[in-house]
Design goal:
4-stranded mixed β-sheet; binds FE2/S2 (inorganic) cluster; about 325 residues; 11 strands; alpha+beta; Alkaline Phosphatase, subunit A
Length: about 325
Amino acid sequence: MPLRPCVPRPPVALMALCVVLACAAPARGGKPDRADSLPGPRARNVVFLIGDGFGPAYVALARGVADRPLAFDPHLVGSATTSSHSSRVTDSGAAATALASGIHTDNNAIGVDPEGRARTTVLEAAEARGLATGLVVTSRLTHATPAAFAAHVSQRSEEEEIARQMTAAGIEVLLGGGAREFRRNGPDARDLAGEAAARGVRVVTDRAELEKLAPMLKAPIQRQVFVCTGKSCKAVGGEEVKAEFARILEAKGLRQGKESKGRNPLGKVLLTECSSIGFCSIGTAVMVYPDGTLYAQVQPSDAAEIVEEHIEKGNVVKRLALIDLDKN
Ligand code: FES
Protein backbone atom coordinates (compact mmCIF):
# COMPACT_ATOMS: atom_id res chain seq x y z
CA MET A 1 0.00 0.00 0.00
CA PRO A 2 2.06 2.96 -1.15
CA LEU A 3 1.36 6.31 0.43
CA ARG A 4 2.86 9.47 -0.95
CA PRO A 5 4.10 12.04 1.51
CA CYS A 6 1.51 14.63 2.36
CA VAL A 7 1.79 17.59 0.05
CA PRO A 8 0.14 20.91 0.93
CA ARG A 9 -2.38 20.90 -1.85
CA PRO A 10 -6.11 21.39 -1.79
CA PRO A 11 -7.65 18.07 -0.80
CA VAL A 12 -9.48 16.34 -3.61
CA ALA A 13 -9.90 13.04 -4.82
CA LEU A 14 -10.77 9.69 -5.87
CA MET A 15 -11.30 6.29 -4.84
CA ALA A 16 -12.88 3.37 -6.38
CA LEU A 17 -14.24 -0.13 -6.27
CA CYS A 18 -15.69 0.95 -3.11
CA VAL A 19 -15.13 4.56 -3.14
CA VAL A 20 -13.70 7.45 -5.00
CA LEU A 21 -13.28 10.74 -3.50
CA ALA A 22 -12.25 13.89 -5.08
CA CYS A 23 -12.19 17.45 -4.05
CA ALA A 24 -12.98 20.38 -6.19
CA ALA A 25 -10.96 23.40 -5.26
CA PRO A 26 -10.95 26.55 -7.38
CA ALA A 27 -9.28 26.20 -10.73
CA ARG A 28 -5.97 27.90 -11.20
CA GLY A 29 -5.71 30.87 -13.50
CA GLY A 30 -8.97 32.53 -12.57
CA LYS A 31 -10.91 31.25 -15.58
CA PRO A 32 -14.47 30.53 -14.50
CA ASP A 33 -15.54 26.96 -15.13
CA ARG A 34 -18.98 25.37 -15.35
CA ALA A 35 -19.12 24.79 -11.61
CA ASP A 36 -19.21 28.56 -11.11
CA SER A 37 -22.60 28.75 -12.81
CA LEU A 38 -24.18 25.95 -10.77
CA PRO A 39 -26.56 26.88 -7.97
CA GLY A 40 -25.61 26.37 -4.33
CA PRO A 41 -22.29 26.49 -2.54
CA ARG A 42 -19.17 25.35 -4.36
CA ALA A 43 -17.98 21.89 -3.38
CA ARG A 44 -14.63 21.77 -1.60
CA ASN A 45 -14.30 17.99 -1.60
CA VAL A 46 -15.79 15.32 -3.81
CA VAL A 47 -16.19 11.72 -2.74
CA PHE A 48 -16.94 9.32 -5.59
CA LEU A 49 -18.28 6.16 -3.99
CA ILE A 50 -18.64 3.06 -6.13
CA GLY A 51 -20.36 -0.09 -4.98
CA ASP A 52 -19.14 -2.62 -7.53
CA GLY A 53 -22.05 -4.01 -9.53
CA PHE A 54 -24.41 -1.87 -7.50
CA GLY A 55 -27.16 -0.68 -9.83
CA PRO A 56 -30.57 0.97 -9.33
CA ALA A 57 -32.28 -2.42 -8.95
CA TYR A 58 -30.31 -3.12 -5.78
CA VAL A 59 -31.16 0.29 -4.39
CA ALA A 60 -34.85 -0.21 -5.12
CA LEU A 61 -34.73 -3.64 -3.52
CA ALA A 62 -33.00 -2.29 -0.41
CA ARG A 63 -35.63 0.43 -0.08
CA GLY A 64 -38.36 -2.12 -0.47
CA VAL A 65 -36.91 -4.46 2.14
CA ALA A 66 -36.20 -1.63 4.57
CA ASP A 67 -39.57 -0.04 3.79
CA ARG A 68 -38.06 3.40 4.25
CA PRO A 69 -35.66 5.81 2.53
CA LEU A 70 -32.01 4.82 2.61
CA ALA A 71 -29.34 6.86 4.36
CA PHE A 72 -27.77 7.91 1.08
CA ASP A 73 -31.04 8.98 -0.57
CA PRO A 74 -30.56 12.65 0.36
CA HIS A 75 -27.21 12.53 -1.47
CA LEU A 76 -28.42 10.72 -4.58
CA VAL A 77 -28.40 13.31 -7.34
CA GLY A 78 -28.45 11.31 -10.57
CA SER A 79 -27.22 8.31 -12.46
CA ALA A 80 -24.84 7.42 -15.28
CA THR A 81 -25.03 4.75 -17.96
CA THR A 82 -22.14 2.30 -17.92
CA SER A 83 -23.01 0.14 -20.92
CA SER A 84 -20.29 -1.62 -22.85
CA HIS A 85 -19.34 -0.81 -26.45
CA SER A 86 -18.66 -4.47 -27.20
CA SER A 87 -21.23 -6.48 -25.29
CA ARG A 88 -24.78 -6.42 -23.96
CA VAL A 89 -23.30 -7.23 -20.56
CA THR A 90 -20.90 -4.65 -19.12
CA ASP A 91 -17.81 -5.72 -17.23
CA SER A 92 -16.03 -3.73 -14.54
CA GLY A 93 -13.45 -2.36 -16.99
CA ALA A 94 -15.98 -0.80 -19.37
CA ALA A 95 -18.26 0.32 -16.55
CA ALA A 96 -15.48 1.97 -14.54
CA THR A 97 -14.08 3.61 -17.68
CA ALA A 98 -17.54 5.08 -18.30
CA LEU A 99 -17.63 6.44 -14.74
CA ALA A 100 -14.03 7.68 -14.76
CA SER A 101 -13.74 9.07 -18.30
CA GLY A 102 -17.32 9.51 -19.48
CA ILE A 103 -17.02 7.20 -22.51
CA HIS A 104 -18.39 3.81 -23.43
CA THR A 105 -15.69 1.33 -24.31
CA ASP A 106 -15.10 -2.38 -24.86
CA ASN A 107 -15.27 -4.90 -22.07
CA ASN A 108 -11.86 -5.50 -20.45
CA ALA A 109 -10.61 -2.07 -21.53
CA ILE A 110 -9.21 0.19 -18.84
CA GLY A 111 -9.16 3.93 -19.46
CA VAL A 112 -9.00 3.57 -23.24
CA ASP A 113 -11.67 4.02 -25.92
CA PRO A 114 -12.67 1.26 -28.39
CA GLU A 115 -9.79 2.36 -30.64
CA GLY A 116 -7.32 1.90 -27.79
CA ARG A 117 -6.70 5.60 -27.22
CA ALA A 118 -6.10 6.68 -23.63
CA ARG A 119 -8.91 8.90 -22.32
CA THR A 120 -8.42 11.33 -19.47
CA THR A 121 -9.98 10.28 -16.18
CA VAL A 122 -11.58 12.47 -13.53
CA LEU A 123 -8.70 11.65 -11.19
CA GLU A 124 -6.16 12.74 -13.77
CA ALA A 125 -8.14 15.93 -14.41
CA ALA A 126 -8.07 16.66 -10.68
CA GLU A 127 -4.31 16.06 -10.53
CA ALA A 128 -3.83 18.34 -13.53
CA ARG A 129 -5.66 21.09 -11.60
CA GLY A 130 -3.23 20.70 -8.71
CA LEU A 131 -5.70 18.95 -6.44
CA ALA A 132 -4.76 16.16 -4.08
CA THR A 133 -6.30 12.82 -4.96
CA GLY A 134 -6.69 9.43 -3.38
CA LEU A 135 -7.77 6.01 -4.50
CA VAL A 136 -9.09 3.82 -1.69
CA VAL A 137 -10.49 0.35 -2.25
CA THR A 138 -11.51 -2.83 -0.49
CA SER A 139 -10.31 -4.87 -3.47
CA ARG A 140 -6.90 -5.07 -5.13
CA LEU A 141 -5.80 -1.61 -6.21
CA THR A 142 -5.18 -3.06 -9.65
CA HIS A 143 -8.72 -4.43 -9.96
CA ALA A 144 -10.52 -3.09 -13.03
CA THR A 145 -12.73 -0.59 -11.20
CA PRO A 146 -10.02 1.44 -9.43
CA ALA A 147 -7.62 0.85 -12.33
CA ALA A 148 -9.89 2.72 -14.73
CA PHE A 149 -9.32 5.93 -12.75
CA ALA A 150 -5.52 5.86 -12.97
CA ALA A 151 -4.35 3.59 -15.78
CA HIS A 152 -4.78 3.02 -19.51
CA VAL A 153 -4.47 -0.54 -20.87
CA SER A 154 -6.51 -2.56 -23.33
CA GLN A 155 -6.80 -5.60 -21.06
CA ARG A 156 -7.76 -5.50 -17.40
CA SER A 157 -5.56 -8.56 -16.84
CA GLU A 158 -2.44 -6.42 -17.34
CA GLU A 159 -2.30 -5.74 -13.62
CA GLU A 160 1.47 -5.35 -13.41
CA GLU A 161 1.32 -2.54 -15.99
CA ILE A 162 -1.68 -1.06 -14.18
CA ALA A 163 0.37 -1.04 -10.97
CA ARG A 164 3.24 0.68 -12.78
CA GLN A 165 1.00 3.40 -14.21
CA MET A 166 -0.86 3.84 -10.95
CA THR A 167 2.37 4.30 -9.01
CA ALA A 168 3.51 6.94 -11.48
CA ALA A 169 0.20 8.83 -11.62
CA GLY A 170 0.99 11.30 -8.82
CA ILE A 171 -1.87 10.14 -6.60
CA GLU A 172 -1.40 11.30 -3.01
CA VAL A 173 -2.93 8.24 -1.35
CA LEU A 174 -3.27 4.69 -2.64
CA LEU A 175 -4.90 2.43 -0.10
CA GLY A 176 -6.04 -1.10 -0.79
CA GLY A 177 -5.03 -4.69 -1.38
CA GLY A 178 -2.99 -6.43 -4.06
CA ALA A 179 0.53 -5.81 -2.75
CA ARG A 180 1.90 -8.57 -4.97
CA GLU A 181 1.26 -6.47 -8.09
CA PHE A 182 3.57 -3.82 -6.67
CA ARG A 183 6.28 -6.34 -5.74
CA ARG A 184 6.47 -8.79 -8.61
CA ASN A 185 8.79 -11.80 -8.54
CA GLY A 186 10.06 -13.65 -11.59
CA PRO A 187 12.35 -12.91 -14.50
CA ASP A 188 10.99 -9.42 -15.14
CA ALA A 189 10.59 -8.69 -11.44
CA ARG A 190 10.13 -5.06 -10.45
CA ASP A 191 9.68 -3.73 -6.94
CA LEU A 192 7.39 -0.76 -7.57
CA ALA A 193 6.73 -0.28 -3.87
CA GLY A 194 10.45 -0.29 -3.12
CA GLU A 195 11.12 2.18 -5.92
CA ALA A 196 8.38 4.44 -4.60
CA ALA A 197 9.82 4.24 -1.08
CA ALA A 198 13.24 5.20 -2.46
CA ARG A 199 11.60 8.33 -3.91
CA GLY A 200 10.29 9.27 -0.48
CA VAL A 201 6.84 7.72 -0.68
CA ARG A 202 5.65 6.28 2.62
CA VAL A 203 4.86 2.60 2.09
CA VAL A 204 2.67 1.05 4.79
CA THR A 205 1.99 -2.66 4.88
CA ASP A 206 0.30 -3.36 8.23
CA ARG A 207 -2.37 -1.95 10.50
CA ALA A 208 0.02 -0.81 13.24
CA GLU A 209 1.92 1.40 10.80
CA LEU A 210 -1.33 2.75 9.40
CA GLU A 211 -2.60 3.60 12.88
CA LYS A 212 0.54 5.63 13.51
CA LEU A 213 -0.32 7.72 10.45
CA ALA A 214 -4.04 7.90 11.23
CA PRO A 215 -4.57 7.54 15.01
CA MET A 216 -8.33 7.97 14.56
CA LEU A 217 -8.43 4.37 13.34
CA LYS A 218 -8.14 3.40 17.02
CA ALA A 219 -10.94 5.67 18.17
CA PRO A 220 -14.15 3.85 19.18
CA ILE A 221 -16.31 6.18 17.09
CA GLN A 222 -20.01 5.45 17.52
CA ARG A 223 -21.69 8.39 15.85
CA GLN A 224 -21.04 11.20 13.42
CA VAL A 225 -22.85 14.50 13.71
CA PHE A 226 -23.10 16.61 10.56
CA VAL A 227 -24.06 20.25 10.95
CA CYS A 228 -25.02 22.00 7.72
CA THR A 229 -23.19 25.27 7.21
CA GLY A 230 -24.40 25.74 3.63
CA LYS A 231 -25.65 29.15 2.54
CA SER A 232 -29.24 28.85 3.83
CA CYS A 233 -28.31 27.17 7.08
CA LYS A 234 -25.51 29.62 7.69
CA ALA A 235 -28.02 32.46 7.33
CA VAL A 236 -30.03 31.06 10.24
CA GLY A 237 -27.10 30.29 12.53
CA GLY A 238 -25.49 27.09 11.20
CA GLU A 239 -22.01 28.16 12.29
CA GLU A 240 -23.25 28.95 15.81
CA VAL A 241 -25.01 25.58 16.03
CA LYS A 242 -21.81 23.80 15.06
CA ALA A 243 -19.79 25.84 17.54
CA GLU A 244 -22.19 24.90 20.32
CA PHE A 245 -22.01 21.19 19.44
CA ALA A 246 -18.22 21.52 19.44
CA ARG A 247 -18.18 23.23 22.82
CA ILE A 248 -20.43 20.64 24.48
CA LEU A 249 -18.85 17.56 22.89
CA GLU A 250 -15.35 18.77 23.75
CA ALA A 251 -16.32 19.59 27.34
CA LYS A 252 -17.65 16.06 27.73
CA GLY A 253 -14.58 14.49 26.09
CA LEU A 254 -16.79 12.99 23.40
CA ARG A 255 -15.42 14.74 20.33
CA GLN A 256 -12.80 12.71 18.51
CA GLY A 257 -9.81 14.66 17.34
CA LYS A 258 -6.35 15.92 18.16
CA GLU A 259 -5.52 16.69 21.77
CA SER A 260 -3.78 19.85 20.62
CA LYS A 261 -7.18 21.11 19.44
CA GLY A 262 -8.88 20.31 22.73
CA ARG A 263 -10.41 17.08 21.44
CA ASN A 264 -10.13 13.47 22.51
CA PRO A 265 -8.12 11.11 20.27
CA LEU A 266 -10.31 8.29 21.58
CA GLY A 267 -13.56 10.26 21.44
CA LYS A 268 -16.76 8.48 20.41
CA VAL A 269 -18.23 11.23 18.24
CA LEU A 270 -17.10 12.85 15.02
CA LEU A 271 -18.38 16.37 14.47
CA THR A 272 -18.32 17.52 10.87
CA GLU A 273 -19.72 20.47 9.02
CA CYS A 274 -21.39 19.75 5.71
CA SER A 275 -22.86 21.77 2.90
CA SER A 276 -26.43 21.79 1.74
CA ILE A 277 -28.26 18.50 1.99
CA GLY A 278 -31.25 19.75 0.07
CA PHE A 279 -33.60 20.71 2.88
CA CYS A 280 -32.53 24.33 2.87
CA SER A 281 -35.81 25.79 4.10
CA ILE A 282 -35.59 23.86 7.37
CA GLY A 283 -32.15 24.99 8.49
CA THR A 284 -30.16 24.61 10.48
CA ALA A 285 -30.08 20.96 9.42
CA VAL A 286 -28.24 18.48 11.65
CA MET A 287 -27.81 14.80 10.79
CA VAL A 288 -26.77 12.02 13.12
CA TYR A 289 -25.25 8.87 11.63
CA PRO A 290 -25.42 5.91 11.57
CA ASP A 291 -28.88 6.42 13.04
CA GLY A 292 -30.12 8.27 9.97
CA THR A 293 -31.76 11.06 11.96
CA LEU A 294 -32.25 14.47 10.35
CA TYR A 295 -32.98 17.30 12.75
CA ALA A 296 -34.54 20.50 11.42
CA GLN A 297 -34.55 24.12 12.60
CA VAL A 298 -31.86 23.37 15.15
CA GLN A 299 -30.80 26.29 17.31
CA PRO A 300 -27.60 26.52 19.37
CA SER A 301 -29.74 26.04 22.48
CA ASP A 302 -30.89 22.62 21.14
CA ALA A 303 -27.37 21.19 20.95
CA ALA A 304 -27.21 20.21 24.62
CA GLU A 305 -30.45 18.21 24.40
CA ILE A 306 -29.36 16.39 21.24
CA VAL A 307 -26.03 15.50 22.82
CA GLU A 308 -27.50 14.37 26.14
CA GLU A 309 -30.54 12.55 24.83
CA HIS A 310 -29.46 11.23 21.45
CA ILE A 311 -25.68 10.96 21.56
CA GLU A 312 -25.36 9.81 25.15
CA LYS A 313 -28.65 7.94 25.73
CA GLY A 314 -29.63 6.90 22.21
CA ASN A 315 -33.05 8.59 22.31
CA VAL A 316 -34.02 10.63 19.25
CA VAL A 317 -35.20 14.13 20.16
CA LYS A 318 -38.61 13.83 18.54
CA ARG A 319 -39.58 17.50 18.69
CA LEU A 320 -36.71 18.32 16.31
CA ALA A 321 -36.58 15.18 14.17
CA LEU A 322 -37.70 15.66 10.57
CA ILE A 323 -36.60 12.18 9.48
CA ASP A 324 -35.83 9.27 11.76
CA LEU A 325 -34.92 6.33 9.57
CA ASP A 326 -35.16 3.88 12.44
CA LYS A 327 -38.81 4.71 12.86
CA ASN A 328 -39.96 5.56 9.30
S1 FES B 1 -28.03 24.97 3.21
FE1 FES B 1 -29.40 23.52 2.31
S2 FES B 1 -29.74 22.12 3.95
FE2 FES B 1 -28.35 23.54 4.80
